[in-house]
Amino acid sequence: MSMAAEERSARAPWALTAPALMLFVGVLLIPLAMTVMLSFHDWGQYKGIEPVFILKNWHEIATDPYYAEMFWRTFRIAILTTLLTALLGAPEAYILNRMDGRWKSFFLLVILGPLLISVVARTLGWALLFGGNNGLVNKLLMSAGVIRSPIPFMFTETGMVIALAHVMMPFMVLSVWAALQRLDPQIENAAMSLGAGPVTIIRRIIMPQIMPGVLSGAIIVFSLSASAFATPAIIGGRRLKVAATLAYDEFLNTLNWPLGAAVATLLLVALVLIVVGSNALIERRYAEVFR
Amino acid sequence: MAYLELDQVAKQFGAQTVVDDFSLSVGKGEFISFLGPSGCGKTTTLQMIAGFLDPSRGAIRLEGKDLTAIHPAKRGLGIVFQSYALFPHMTAAENVAFGLDMRGVARAEKAERVRAALAMVGLAGFEDRHPRRMSGGQQQRVALARALVIKPSVLLLDEPLSNLDAKLREEMQIELRQIQRTIGTTTILVTHDQNEAMSLSDRIVVMSQGKIEQIGTPQETYEKPASAFVSQFLGKTNDFAGTIDRTATPAQLVAGSWSAPAPAALSGPVTVSIRPERIGFGDAGLHAKIVTRIFQGNHWLFQCDSECGPAIVIRQNDGTAQPAEGEAVRLTWHPQDMSVRARAGA
Fold first, then answer.
1. Which residues of chain B are within 8 Å of residue A209 when distances are taken between CB atoms?
2. CA nearest to B280, candidates B214, B225, B334
3. Is the pLDDT of residue B144 over 80?
């Protein structure tokens, strides 16, 4: 009797999670496994996809410097975007946290704004501001005599970083904000009573405590930027490709699915390694203090 | 001359007056408690001394100098917060050393002072521990060491013991008192716990609704409460309605069947306040019936139904026989043990 009950209670968690697990397996694991398999298949202009096991695609990615350049650009853009969001987002969160209730909710909405707007509308907005000679900002700056020729925005890495930082900002701000919420509300007064000035308080008391928030925000922003598709697709088009748009092109333009699958798989593996690695580093670094 | 002086200090938030007309002079080395229920303005007053809030009116002076003109970071006061507000990313020693860093104390002297401060609060050997890995009591000690290591002119304690369990709180009270006696730092404690205020302080400032109700030694505030609020807030008390009859000779104070020669000055309806431990059972006095009798080890607690309403009586457990539940008794007390106030609205 008790054996049966034990057996049943051991099965219960599996039974209860089965629907979610099956969905997870069905829509994520199986397609992923198929993509990985696909990356080992052969492809020819006239013969199409051949389900054989070869390393051709991987060999091509490893040896052709074109792919190295693509991946290097992808990670450079992701790193710059992460730095920009951290530099702007951390102070933004700190200021937001100190605001009065009403202003706080208003500005939180402003910060979340980019997530609520369609990526196309948002990116086109940036293009209108900066794009070519007719961009509003460029026009203003040129008529004010600050710059002589328009700042290039479309089809540039600068443009991609700016547009990506804009949409990634909420993730950084919310992550830092969560860390700020955990701060003792009296901690600044405590430091002040011991003789610390505002700069010292931020540098020695606030910064070290919100660092885990900044770093976890950085992991989110980095992985989202490195795998971002829509923003680089609109700003970079086919002239300035990153890993995600490259995979897309292989799939839909060249129709070389196996090569596209290899690019996508490599991007996924690289991201997983970077995220897991830095997460482990952060956890070890802050284990003692933030448990 | 007063060491720390608060002169008609008031604080307003919008139309709301949180602290009003607060005047107090604190002698050097004195231990003062601000005692009152939450929202009475005691913490606000402390924050004005600390400089986290500016008074709306009045002056705060330390050794004759205007304290409100000095930035909070330059006031040199030691503060222990209710939440301790320790720096979680620093070890105990780094927490304590922070104030010394800000003062540019040389490395060797700093190390020695940090060691001594931690030893004083009984945390020698805990230097490298992070606050999150310490118990509440230990964190409390680190906060105290951090506040004391800078040799503050005044030590401000904002409900420092309220997050500790009862036994630990009692231990810390004794320890806090000893440390304060040893180093002689002028100390202001904010608390809502009357036992804490009474066992620690030289003088108690009883506050209610932003105003001072009474300033006095623990004995004074307990024995001679200046208002009904003070007598109710500091320990249990019995309030009986009485009357002073000036037509009789000599004038009589009458409460039910209990009577005594009337005190001077008052007449008409009065409230008689008497502490439960000052009431005895006798042959004359207030008629009462014992409702419940509770044994509490060193004393008995009686809840009685008297002709003047419910009454509490505490008798020492001195081995004598005590009345049983349901028994009819007479309650009596010495006139010098009671305080008599004019009764409003009667």
1. 87-89
2. B334
3. yes
| pLDDT tens-digit map of A60-106 | 999 999 999 999 999 999 999 999 999 999 999 999 999 988 999 89
Nearest residue, CB atoms, B89 vs list A189, A191, A289: A289
Is B85 in contact with A195 (Cβ distance < 8 A)? no
Alpha-carbon distance of B187 to B30, in angstroms, equals: 6
Neighbouring-strand partners of residue B273: B239, B339
pLDDT interval class at B337 (50, 70, 90): confident
Pick B73's closest partner by Cβ from A195, A289, A290: A195
Taking the model in full, what pTM does it have?
Answer: 0.81
- The count of other CB atoms within 10 Å of the CB of residue B160 is 25
* Cis peptide upstream of residue B250 (ω within 30 degrees of 0): yes
Q: Which residue in B73, B75, B89 is closest to A196 by CB distance?
A: B73
Task: Give the pLDDT of residue A11.
Answer: 86
Beta bridge partners of B66: B61
Cα A165 from Cα A84, distance rounded (Å): 7
Could you say which of A192, A289, A291 has the minimum Cβ distance to residue B73? A192
Contact of A100 with chain B, judged by CB distance below 8 Å, is answered with: no
- How does pLDDT run across A189-210, given as a tens digit for each residue? 999 999 999 999 999 999 999 9
Amino acid (1-letter code) at residue A206: I
Residue B203 has pLDDT above 50, yes or no: yes
Domains detected in chain A? 37-286 (1.10.3720.10)
User: Domains of chain B by range and CATH?
Assistant: 4-232 (3.40.50.300), 236-342 (2.40.50.140)
d(CA B257, CA B196): 37
Give how far B328 is from chain A: nearest CA, Å.
56
Handedness of CA A83, A85, A88, A93 (dihedral sign): negative
Chain A CB contacts of B52 under 8 Å are 189, 192
Cβ-based contacts of A210 with chain B (< 8 Å): none
Query: Which stretches within chain A are classed as H helix?
Result: 2-24, 30-38, 56-63, 65-98, 101-116, 119-130, 136-143, 157-181, 187-193, 198-200, 207-226, 230-236, 243-252, 257-286
d(Cα B80, Cα B161) in Å, to the nearest integer?
Answer: 10
What's the rounded Cα separation, in Å, for the pair A287 and B309? 61
Residue-averaged pLDDT of chain B: 91
Say whether A190 and B88 touch across the interface (CB within 8 A): no
Cβ neighbours for A75, distance < 8 A, ≥ 6 positions apart: A226, A270
Residue A16 has pLDDT above 60, yes or no: yes
Q: Is the dihedral of CA A168, A171, A175, A180 positive or negative?
A: positive
Spatial distance between the Cα atoms of A2 and A260, rounded to a whole number of angstroms: 55
